[in-house]
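Retry 2 of 3 after timeout on previous attempt. Resubmitting structure tokens to design endpoint.
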């Protein structure tokens, strides 16, 4: 089979996404309206007149040179198990013709999976420092993809810490279907959580914490105030309110059910808030915020449980808690993140990660040097 790659309309792109079970929200046409600092285009892979795959490309220009970094976050949406020798060359050819100095992809393909029990054992073992020290379960498709990219001149961009400027290579996910494809029940998911998580969910219910789902609007200001408070406490740089307003406007215009805001109140006080996104059978916990006061009523656990229940009701396949670092050392401050998420049951997942293909080596080396200096 031979493919050609050419631009498609947002309507054609969205129609194809609706036919798919799982596509990242960062590969939807709406995401282009969120990342307005990039120039975006939707691409289609055609076998004759049949649209077989899609990709949202974000172009970051190099000042004064006219070349761009062509970035496909968590994409493209192609058959990664179908032989990349027919899928990738037409993408490279098209983007080269459009003036890209490099292409960056982040294949939505797993390479390794570790169960909650395996992660817990690793944390308890002083001889285990990272997830990759554990045997886990390898995914042959993901490892084939990584081998193809490496053999084809692509360069991995995955920091050892697991977190970089792009997409996280390690995530934590709760499967919402059994291996035979049948849906899990709420009781089954709850039973899979550890005792602390179950107790905290019950504690929130007993304290009469009320969780409501919102479409954004004026509630976004309340979320953002709490989010800024969380950023000051946990020492990270918050995004501005305008970013979240743009995100809700763009994603809800594409699909009213695409994005929701969950608010946990206790006696009228906002104690936790989260942002939830769903595309087909994949649901994500995207952002969270919590109050330093009233932490004992467990508003964050209540929000998570509400989002998991709604994902089950929507017939989702997976609830995605997104990025973790691969550290399992109790001496590392980042281990608390994976300890919190492993309490939900589920599994830690390693993806292929982000890879660059330099098309104009001199420009790419200059760009790479600039990025390294900026991130120091």
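Retry 2 succeeded. Sequence:
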């Amino acid at each position: 089979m031979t493919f050609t790659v050419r631009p498609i309309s947002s309507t054609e792109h969205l129609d194809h996404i609706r036919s798919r079970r799982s596509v990242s929200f960062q590969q939807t046409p709406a995401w282009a309206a969120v990342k307005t600092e990039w120039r975006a285009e939707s691409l289609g892979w055609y076998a004759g007149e049949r649209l077989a795959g899609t990709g949202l490309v974000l172009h970051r220009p190099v000042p004064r040179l006219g070349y761009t970094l062509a970035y496909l976050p968590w994409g493209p949406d192609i058959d990664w198990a179908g032989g990349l020798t027919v899928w990738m060359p037409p993408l490279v050819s098209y983007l080269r013709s459009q003036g890209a100095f490099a292409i960056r992809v982040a294949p939505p393909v797993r390479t390794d999976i570790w169960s909650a029990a395996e992660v817990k054992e690793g944390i308890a073992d002083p001889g285990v420092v990272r997830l990759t020290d554990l045997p886990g379960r390898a995914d042959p498709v993901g490892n084939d993809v990584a081998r193809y990219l490496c053999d084809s001149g692509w360069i991995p961009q995955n920091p050892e810490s697991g977190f970089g400027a792009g997409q996280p290579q390690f995530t934590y996910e709760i499967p919402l279907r059994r291996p035979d494809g049948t849906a899990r029940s709420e009781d089954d998911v709850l039973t899979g959580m550890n005792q602390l998580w179950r107790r905290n969910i019950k504690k929130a219910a007993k304290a009469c914490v009320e969780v409501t789902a919102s479409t954004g609007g004026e509630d976004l200001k309340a979320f953002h105030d709490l989010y800024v408070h969380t950023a000051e406490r946990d020492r990270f740089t918050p995004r501005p309110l305008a970013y979240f307003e743009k995100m809700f406007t763009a994603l809800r215009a594409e699909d009213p059910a695409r994005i929701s805001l969950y608010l946990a109140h206790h006696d009228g006080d906002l104690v936790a808030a989260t942002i939830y996104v769903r595309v087909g059978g994949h649901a994500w916990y995207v952002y969270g915020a919590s109050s330093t006061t009233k932490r004992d009523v467990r508003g964050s656990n209540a929000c998570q449980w509400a989002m998991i229940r709604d994902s089950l009701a929507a017939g989702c396949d997976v609830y995605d808690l997104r990025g973790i670092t691969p550290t399992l050392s109790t001496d590392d401050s980042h281990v608390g993140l994976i300890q919190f998420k492993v309490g939900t049951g589920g599994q830690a997942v390693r993806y292929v990660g982000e890879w660059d293909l330099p098309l104009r080596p001199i420009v790419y080396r200059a760009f790479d040097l600039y990025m390294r200096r900026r991130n120091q």
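Attempt log closed. The domain at 184-314 is CATH 3.40.630.30 (Aminopeptidase).
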